[in-house]
Design a protein that fits this description.
112 residues; mainly beta; three-stranded antiparallel β-sheet; 1 helix; 7 strands; 34% strand; elongated
């Protein structure tokens, strides 16, 4: 899904979907019709062909949610979520102390 073909994304959503760099991102499926599934990510919705949709287990945490880190107890906000294909689990990117961290975090890194 690095640069999806125009036929796979609704024409009104194509530019925004491509600018999102959707490859590897975790989306929430919010609706289905015979022609499209509607995916949500970061408050935006995109209509895409079912060919692009790959169901994965629902992550425990969501973008925008506050979490507490194990070990040091610092609070952070999830700002991005992607799918790690080899581990078959979500990986999270955080806003920590006002800065977006490049490190990947896993569910096991959070309290609760």
């Amino acid at each position: 899904m690095r640069n999806p073909a125009p036929r796979l994304v609704h024409s009104e959503d194509l530019a925004a979907f491509r600018s999102l760099s959707p490859y590897g991102r975790v989306f929430e499926c919010v609706a289905e019709t015979s022609r499209y599934v509607t995916l949500s990510c970061g408050g935006k919705k995109f209509r895409v062909s079912p060919e692009l949709f790959r169901p994965v287990p629902a992550p425990r945490w969501r973008v925008g949610q506050d979490v507490v880190l194990k070990g040091d107890g610092r609070s952070a906000t999830i700002v991005e979520m992607a799918w790690h294909h080899q581990r078959e689990q979500a990986m999270y990117f955080l806003l920590l102390e006002g800065k977006k961290k490049s490190r990947r975090y896993w569910e096991s890194d959070f309290v609760g």
